[in-house]
Q: What sequence folds into this?
């Protein structure tokens, strides 16, 4: 789950391009808020983000979603679908419910 120390503080190294399908794609690295000692102690630092496609919703807001090709990386249904404004605590609760469902079905 996300906590204040692991929640992304910012994105670095963003790069973007337009692909041959006309999509606006973005690649990033999400940095967390832990200290360098915290990174060392946990054995990992930061996350490489999967490519996302940017678009504009009908209401004018920015929309982003994983590129369709990412769907081929797993064979199951989405763990959680969040399609409206959602707080981090509500997103974490939805992920926790999903995790409980996954662990009881296996």
A:
């Amino acid at each position: 789950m996300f906590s204040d120390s692991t929640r992304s503080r910012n994105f670095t190294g963003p790069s973007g391009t337009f692909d041959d399908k006309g999509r606006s794609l973005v690649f990033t690295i999400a940095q967390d808020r832990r200290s360098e000692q915290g990174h060392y102690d946990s054995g990992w630092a930061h996350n490489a983000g999967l490519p996302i496609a940017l678009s504009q919703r009908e209401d004018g807001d920015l929309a982003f979603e994983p590129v369709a090709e990412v769907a081929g990386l797993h064979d199951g249904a989405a763990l959680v679908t969040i399609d409206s404004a959602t707080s981090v605590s509500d997103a974490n609760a939805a992920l926790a419910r999903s995790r409980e469902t996954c662990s009881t079905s296996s």
